[in-house]
TrEMBL record:
Organismal lineage: Bacteria, Bacillati, Cyanobacteriota, Cyanophyceae, Leptolyngbyales
Domain Saccharopine dehydrogenase NADP binding, first and last residues per copy: 4-133
Protein name: Saccharopine dehydrogenase
Domain Saccharopine dehydrogenase-like C-terminal: 137-383
InterPro entries documented for this protein: NAD(P)-bd_dom_sf, Sacchrp_dh-like_C, Sacchrp_dh_NADP-bd
Amino acid sequence: MARVMVVGAGGVGRVVAHKLAALEEFEEILLTSRTVERCNQIAESISSRHVQTAQVDADDVSQTVALLKSFRPDVLVNVALPYQDLALMDACLNAGVHYLDTANYEPPDNPKFEYSWQWAYQDRFYDAGLTAILGCGFDPGVTGIFTAHALKHHFDEIHELDIVDCNAGSHGRAFATNFNPEINIREITQPGRYFEKGEWITVPPLSIHRPVDYPHIGDRESYLLYHEELESLVKHIPTLKRARFWMTFSQSYINYLQVLETLGLTRIDPIDYEGTPVVPLKMLKKLLPDPASLAATYTGQTSIGCHIRGIKDGQEKTYYIYNNCDHAAAYQEVGAQAISYTTGVPAALGALMVANGTWQKPGVFNVEQLDPDPFLAKLGDMGLPWHEVIGQPSPFEAI
Ligand code: NDP
C-alpha cells in the first residue's frame, strides 16, 4: 500500500485526485495547493473515500519539505504550474520522495520550453536513489509512451513522427483556454519549431498549417507548434529524421489571439499602470474563464495521437496510435473537461507505476525511456482507451 501527495488543485488536480482515489493501491492521499479551499472542494466531491487536504506554497521549498516529512508519501505528483517544478524537485530530494510532473520547468520571465533545467537534476536523483518522471500528462506524456510502444512492438527504426492534437469540443464561450490561460498563451504565441534532417527549424507562430483528418471527427485545420516532448523524443530516439507537433485551433480562436497580441495583452514583461507594475498576461488570465468552469457545458471530443513512419523488417511502414476522449463523459465521471481528464489520468497512472515499483529506478526520466507495456495495459481501464491503425496511407507526406 502506498501514499501519495498531490500539489495543485486546478482542473488537472481534480482529475488526479479522483483517479488516485479509485486506485486501491493508494491507502492515503493528500491533496495540497496554494488555495486550500479548492482542495477541500475537490475532496468533498470524492464520495468513495477520504482525501486529506493541506495548504502549501510550492515556491517555498521549506513548506513542501515540512509537509512531505509529516505525511511521508512515496511519490509527489506535481500538477501545479511549470514554475514550481524545480522547487518541488528540490523538496523531494530533501525529503526522500519520488517525483512526477506533467509540464517542463519554465522560468516565469522567459517562456523557454526545454528540459535542460530538469535534466540537470539527473545526478542528484540518481545519487539519492530516487525517481523523477518528467512530462506524464497526455502531451507530453502518453504521446511519448505511444511512441515508445510503436518502437518496441511495430518498428525497427522510427524515421518520422507527427503528433496531432485536436480539440473538437465546444464550450459556448467566445474565447477561453482549455488549461491555465497564462501557461497556454505563453506556449502558443511562441515561434513554431520542428526537427528535420538533424536540424531544428524555427518558423513564425502558427505560420504552417494544414487540414488533418481525426478519427470520428473529420478534417480540422492543424497548426505546427513547438511542443516540449519533441526535444526529449529526438534525443531518445536518434533514428528520427523528422519530428513535428500539430494542434487544432478555430479561425475565431486565432482572430481573438491576434487581437490580444496586437493590443499587448499577451506580454509577460511588467508594464507600469499608474505606478503599479502589472504583467498584462497575468491580468488577462484573471479576466478569462477558469478552464475548469468550462467543463459543465462542454460537448464534443478530443483526439490526440502519433502518426509514425519507419522501417520494420526492411519494409517501410506507417502507423497511427490515438485516443479520443469525450468532454461530457469526463464531466459526468469526475466533474472535469477532457483536456484536464487526458492530463490527469496519465499522471495518476504514472504515480501508480512509480509507487508499485514498475517505473522506479534512480534518476530523471522522460516517459519514453520507461517500459510502455505496463502503463498501456492499464490506460484503457483508467478511462483512456487507445487504438492503432497499421499500414494506412499517412496524412503526412514522406520526406
Ligand atoms: P490550473 O491553473 O487550473 O491549476 C493550477 C493549480 O496549481 C491551482 O490549484 C493553483 O493554485 C496551484 N498553484 C499555483 N501556484 C502554486 C504554488 N506556488 N503553490 C501551490 N500551488 C500552486 O492549471 P491546470 O490544472 O489546467 O494545469 C495544471 C498543470 O498541468 C500545468 O502545469 C499545465 O501546464 C499542465 N498540463 C499538462 C498537460 C499535458 O498533457 N502534459 C495538458 C494540460 C495541462 P490557485 O488555485 O491558488 O491558483
